Amino acid sequence: MSEEKVKVGAYSGHREEEVPRKIVVHEREIDVVEILKRWIAEGLEDRTIKRFFKVKGSDGAVHEIYCDEWKMEWFLRG
Hints:
Helix content: under 10%
């Protein structure tokens, strides 16, 4: 599965957990209309933590994005 580094506009709620609100892919902004699923994956060997979100975008497509908490960068899978 390919991965692409993207920019994500996020909102930190009262628990300071970031929730994606906007994805910027190839300079095109896509609003997050709905969060369909979220989960956390932890690497066994390197102990990395990735927070995944499956979201419905304003473009009508479903996108799977994640934040690599060690790098503090967002990626689009697809």
